[in-house]
Each structure stands twice: as structure tokens, then as C-alpha cells.
Amino acid sequence: MKAAAFRYHRADSLAEAGEMLTSLDNARLLSGGQSLMAMMNLRYVIVDHLIDLNPVSELAGISHHDDHFQVGAMTRQRCFLDDDAVAAHSPIFREALGYVGHLQTRNRGTVGGSLAHMDPAAELLGLAALTDADITLSGPNGSRQVAIAEFPQAYMTPDIKVDEILTAVRFNRWPAGHGWDFREFAQRHGDFAVVGVGCLLTLDAAGAIDRAAVVLIGVADGPLRLPAVEAMLLGMLPNADLFRAAGEAARHPEITGDALVTADYRRQLAAVMVRRSLTNAHQRAVQAMNQEHHHV
Ligand SMILES: Cc1cc2nc3c(=O)[nH]c(=O)nc-3n(C[C@H](O)[C@H](O)[C@H](O)COP(=O)(O)OP(=O)(O)OC[C@H]3O[C@@H](n4cnc5c(N)ncnc54)[C@H](O)[C@@H]3O)c2cc1C
Where are the domains positioned within the chain? Predict the structure, then answer.
């Protein structure tokens, strides 16, 4: 099918895009087009005006700071994956971004487009949830920040008003030496995950877990942080029993089924994948600690 007729507008700056969005009726922003064009061609989305953000170079790029890094909305997913500084201080990003679609879709697809589209299985939302990210939105009255926990409102419905543009996302950095793991179960490589798991943890000098973050993607409307699982890990010396119990605790009641799989099947996958993911994150944290001792 072809998209219904629409008028194309090229925005050359954020200010211009904002003005267009406020003045035009039934308008949509175009970023990488990897989700929007498909929805328009299926006539699942019918717009009168399309506002192209691609020329807005001020919205692209990554800036690094001591405790966080900020990624502009128009940063291509591929540039984010390829950023060596991100991979050095936050290696989970490279591991997770490799699961975002295919090389071809990552070349065009943007960080802001993925967050705004809010697919339940979007890896970028999972990474944002894991790092307690903040999202910046620009509207006619200036800009505002939304914590990732408040961002999802309903299925594929983020907290973005019709006259707002997502401009950046700020991810918090974890301290050097943390453990990390991101993994997915999908029917074919590049498909949206049936279940995805991400986790981050740090160990104290005695080897006990002193900080943990665990998230599931693809199982609910938005990314599902697992605070109960995180709490049971804190202060514990890791072993196979602990991670098995953590996996069992990941069978969250909010995990849903769909046309493809049942909720129980997803819960079983979550239990196994959380256990494996934590085990690997722990091994990596131990390796990082050993390397630091070696350097001293
Ligand atoms: C074959 C295939 C496989 C894929 N697999 C995955 C996958 O495994 N994981 C995954 O996460 N994604 C996957 N995707 C989707 C892909 O990552 C898209 O790039 C992403 O969902 C949307 O980003 P985009 O830049 O292409 O946005 P677009 O398609 O241009 O826009 C998506 C939506 O967001 C809105 N929007 C865009 N930018 C902004 C902004 N700055 N502010 C406010 N609203 C905005 C648009 O109006 C539109 O409603 C896949 C896509 C394809 C085609």
C-alpha cells in the first residue's frame, strides 16, 4: 500500500520545527522513518503534514560528562552503537544496540524516534530505564524533563504532547568496574524481542552486591524495572542459588501475552534469562575488579 497524500515540510532548525508543529494541524515529525513510513504506508497513520527533522543537525550528537552522557534525538542508532567512549564507560549500550533491528535500520533509525515510538520491545527504552534516564522535550513554552519512569503512559503512548519535540535523552553512567549484561530471545535475529533482559550491578570490596538494576523489555507496555529483584540482591554474596531465586522473582504479574506467545511462556523466559543475565553481569564485575587490583 501507499501512504495517503500528505504535505512534506523541511525543518532547518529546532525552532522552525517547533513553529511548524504548533501551526500545522494533524502533523507528525519524521526522524529515521523506520517505523513511521511503515505505519503511513499501511495507513495505520494518516497525516496531513510531515515535518522532516533530518536537516536539524543541532539535534544530533553525544556529549560526555563525569556522571552522565547526553544523546541528541537525531543521533542515528548506528552512531550511538559505534561511539567508543560510550562503549568504554557504559559497555551495555553496545551490547544492547546490536539488537536494534538491522544494520540498515540502525543507519537511519534515530535515538529520539525509537523513544518516541515507544515499541514495548525497544532496547533504547530498556537502557533508559536501567540508567534512570531523563528525557528532554521542547514545546512552545520552553523545555521540560521527564524521568523515564514517568514517560510511558500506555501502549505505544509516551508522555509527549502534540506540540512537543523530543530533543535529547540523558543516560546516567554507572561507576567504573560495574558488571553488565543485555540479552534477548527473538524468533529470528533482528526481530523484536519476545523477552529482553538488561542488568547492571556493582560489588563492594567483599564481593557483595551493593547496587543492582534489572529490566525486562518486550513484556509489558513499557520497560519493566524489577525493584523487588533488585532489592533481594542487595548486600548478598552472589551464588547460583541467589541468581536462581532472582530469576523466579522475575515472573512479574504485569508480564503479558500476545498473539505470538502466552504470558506464562514469557514469564518462564524471564526467569531463565534474568538468572543467566545476572550470572554473566556478576562474572564481568569480578573480572573488572580483578583487573583493577592488577593495575594497583
Ligand atoms: C525491519 C525492522 C526491524 C526493527 N527492529 C527493531 C528492534 O529490534 N528494536 C527497536 O527498538 N526498533 C526496531 N525497529 C524500529 C526502528 O528502531 C526505528 O528506527 C524506531 O522505532 C523509530 O525511530 P525512527 O528514527 O526511525 O523514527 P520515525 O519512524 O521517523 O518516527 C517514529 C515515531 O516517533 C515520532 N518521532 C520521531 N522523532 C521524534 C521526536 N524527535 N520527537 C517526538 N516524536 C518523534 C514520529 O512522529 C513517529 O510517530 C525496527 C524497524 C524495522 C523496519
Answer: 7-52, 58-172, 179-295
